[in-house]
Amino acid sequence: MNATIDTTHYSRTSFLDHGDDTRSIDESVRLPVLALFGNAIHWFMVAVLISLVLAIKLIVPGFLNFSWANFLSYGRLVPIARDLFLYGWASQAALGAGIWLAARLAGRPLASTRDRGVHLHTLLISATVLWNLGVVLGSLAIFAGYTTGVEWLEYPGWASATLFLSFLLIGIWAVLLFDRSKNEDLKVPQWYLIAGFCSFPWIYGTANLLLVWKPLSAASQGAVQAWFSGSFLSLWLLPVSLAALYAMIPRALGSPLNRGSLAPLGFWSILLLGGWNGIQRLIGGPVPAWMSSVGVVSSVLFLIPILIICINLLGIDYRKNPRVGRNVSLRFLILGLFSLITLGVIGAVSSLPMISAALHFTGVSEAQTQLWILGAVTFPLFGVLYEALPRLLGRECWSEKLSERHYWLSLVGFWLLIGMLVLEGLFTGLALLDPAVSFLNVSSYAYPFRFMEVVAQLLLLAGAMMLGVNITRALAGDYLFPKR
Amino acid sequence: MHRLPTLLSGIFLVFLTSWLGLVAYPAIQLGRLVPVSDAETGGSLPPLYNGSAVAGQRVYASEGCVYCHTQQVRQTSVTHSDIERGWGLRPSVARDYLRDSTAFLGSSRIGEDLSNVGTRLTNATAYYNELYAPASVSTEATMPSYSDLFKVRQIQGQRSAEALDLPPEFAPKPGYEVVPTTDAKNLVAYLLSLKHDYALPEADSVKNSPAPPSH
To answer: Could you point out which of A22, A97, A326, B198 has its C-alpha 20 to 30 Å from the C-alpha of A140?
Structure first.
């Protein structure tokens, strides 16, 4: 079957390389991908900075809390930071990564002729401007108190409509690339990209329609919101990350997938379960009992695709390639993979009713969200960025020192944050089970962990700044050291 | 096998399953829920909010209360701890949210659950003090002050009847008073009306259901 074709194909060359054509493919997507990634990274840095402020606010409630500046209150900054992570950073970077990967995987330039390319770039850059306009105006609206009040969909209807339209304008070109793909039998990373790019309009459109543009009765909103948050992560952002993992890890190691014939099972089970496991957020909640049960079952079954992904990608012999340790891109991809494994295990365990009783709504729930957004989604996107930028610019552009620092600060900050959130969740969750312990008392258990969470956020911010300096340096190089 | 049309139809079909289950089903089935009539008062359950409470939902959303406070008492099949903690007499059901414009279910309990806060704190003054100066209620509070919902103003003639009675260390300087704004009043009206202390056909109060296991 095609799985065997995949494997042989991998072993000879990679899907991502096309000899002399490679250069023209990169040039055809250069401007839009740079625009998307460049904007996305700004939002990432802002979001990480706000997260630090939020972490401090949890231990010092009065920090940056003024009656004349209510827009800096905890309740407004939380949705702003989260939406910047989701829309400003992750979705935008996923669009950029997706277009680069799609063009490389298809083996075709974005546009067939130069003239068309110019028009297309104008369109894509305008759409990117539109996307960022949506993010800016949406965030300002939350600052000003005009939130919709729906978690993860706080942007007012007109801002989310802007994002939706902009996505269609950009995403359609990625999908068209698959239609023109050199290889008619599409490869694993291509499946994931198609799934992701087709899911976004459906997920974001449905959720906005039913929760923002023309809200349903509040009795049914909970289930739809849970479906949205689960699907947005596991059917839009995760597939793009997985496309990066499947395309880039075997290539960097110079080996084929391990047991590539399992890959289709992994793909289809992610698609099937991804839509259901968001309802895990409502275990025990005001939804029909079967939904609660489905949340548990799908969270546990989600381990199957994760296991398959591990077999495929971690089963490769890493010792064959001695350069692995120095490849920042590859290490970020693998970090993303380990986040995925961790979130699968924590998700499955904490969805079991007995355990959910204690840990739901605590730091463990927050740890899961962070494992998704920062871990399984953000790290693979960094992996793409580190690999793609030098190719797009046509020269080595990264400072190795800064890349290393970015990697290590992110790694330590991230796992420290997850560890502390999980411990905070365990301590407060178990205490909450005992009604004799007052709620204020329970909160005081969280204090030492929240203190360490501030340290973790500081490390993450330092890492983000390393990336910021690194990329500024990389892009400025174009002007300071013109290409020969 | 993995050509574009096959792949697209496959993705569409697989995607459709969760969409039907978690979007279409609740939209149709739960969307059909209606209030039930209350035999005791002749009104309906859940009761209608008053105008001020309706406006208060907007303030609740704007200030982002939902990021620290849930509004759901979990089912006894999962845990009794929410009920034992006094957060409600019975688990929340979908019908409880019928009168809300947005269901503020929440996903984090940095603060207490608020589904029935109106039964625990029954006096508007208590809310005002907690919102203006949480530390005046408890020094360990994680909650920040929502002083933007209040006005500190010079006392003109007599002290306003609405002015907050605060402990000395939180009180404004002499000659000044702290009064709630309309937003604060609406928010508190909404919080006061958060009480699901009645039984619904699908949710008896816990008194009638099997006793929780002893610890």
So the answer is: A97
Tell me the chain B residues in contact with residue A429 when contact means C-beta distances shorter than 8 Å.
Answer: none
Confidence of residue B209 (pLDDT cuts 50, 70, 90): very low
Q: What ipTM, to 2 d.p.? A: 0.92
Query: pTM of this prediction?
Result: 0.94
C-beta separation of A264 from A271 below 8 A: no
Q: Cβ contacts (< 8 Å) between A288 and chain B: which residues?
A: 29-30, 94
Contact A224 B101 (CB under 8 A): no
Q: Do A218 and B61 touch (CB under 8 A)?
A: no
Residue A469 buriedness (CB in 10 A; 0-12 / 13-18 / 19+): middle
pLDDT tens-place string over residues A224-277:
999 999 999 999 999 999 999 999 998 888 888 999 899 999 999 999 999 998
Contact B11 A195 (CB under 8 A): yes
With beta carbons under 8 A apart, name residues in chain B contacting A1: 1
CB contact under 8 A, A73 and B63: yes
